[in-house]
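Researcher: Structure prediction, please.
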Amino acid sequence: MRILIRVQKFNPESDARPHFRDYGVEALPGTTLLSALLKIKSDVDGTLTFRASCRAAICGSCAMQVNGIPKLACRLSLRDEMDRHGQVTIAPLAHLPVIKDLVVRMESFWDKVTAITPYVVSGGDVPPTTALQGLHEDLHNADGCIMCGACLAACQSAEVSPGFLGPAALAKAYRFQVDPRDRTHEARLAALQGADGIWDCVRCNFCVSVCPKDVAPMEQIIRLRQRSIEAGLSESIGARHITQFVKGVGEEGRLNETQLPLRMTWGDWRAMWRLLPLGIKMFLRGKSPFPFAFHPGRRDVRALFKGRRTGPHAESRRPSPE
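Model: Predicted structure follows.
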C-alpha cells in the first residue's frame, strides 16, 4: 500500500517560512511512521530532520504532530493512521520553537520541569522501608512520564499562557508530593498556588488523551489541587471557586450561579464591581435564582453534607475538589 506523507519542512538558514513537502512510501501492515521517515531520509531526502532513538516508546524523542495530534512516531502504525484520517500530515510539536523540520527546542519544556524541583529533597530521619510500600499505588502512574512533551504540545493553557508550568511538570510535581522521603511537601504546594501553577489548568483533558504512557497529567493536577485545599491553601481564585461551590451547594441544595462569583470575590470590591454587568445580564436572561425561592431538595442535600462532615466514613465521602 502506497501512502502519501505530507511533512512540514523548515530550514531557518534558507526558508522564510515553513512549507510542506509530499513523500510517497510503501507501507506494509507493520510499518510505523518512524520507519517510514527513516526510509525517506535514507532514500529520498537526506535533509529531512527529526529526532529518534529507542524505537520502543521509551525515550520520547520522536514525538511530533500527526494530523494535528501529538504522537510518538515509533509506535504509530502508518496504515492505521491513514485508515482513520485519510491522510498523514506531520508537523513539529506545538508551543516549542522549531530548529529545523520536525526538531524543536526543548529548553522551555525542561525549564518548566526544573522549576518544580524534580528530585527528592531529603533531610532529617529517613522514613522506614515500610513507608515506601504503598508508594506505587499513591503515585497513580505519575512516575511513568517519559518527558516526550506531547502533553505540553496539546495543552490549551500553554497555548494562551506560555509561562504555564504544563502537564508534564505538574504531574512530576505530584510524584514528589506523595513521596514520603521528601521533606518539602508544604513548600512544594505553596509554590504551585500562583500564576502559571495548578490553578491555571482549564481541564481540557487533551494531555490525558495524547499521553503515550497513560500518566493522565490532568488527574495528577486535580490531586495536587485537592492536597492544596486540605493543607489550607485556599485563598487563590481557583481554590475559592471549589470551596465556595461546595459550600453554596451544601447550604442551598443547588448551584446558585449568582452567588458563586460573589462568594469567590467577596472582599475584593474592585473585582465585585467588574462582575456587575455580568450579574445584570444573568438576571435579564433568567439565570439568577429568586433569592427567596428555596430548592425543594435543599433539606436532603444539607443532610448529605452533614453526614459527610460527621459520619464514620466522612473522609471517604469527601466530594472531589473538581
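Model: Strands lie at 2-9, 19-26, 63-66, 69-72, 88-91, 98-100, 103-104.
Researcher: Thanks, that helps.
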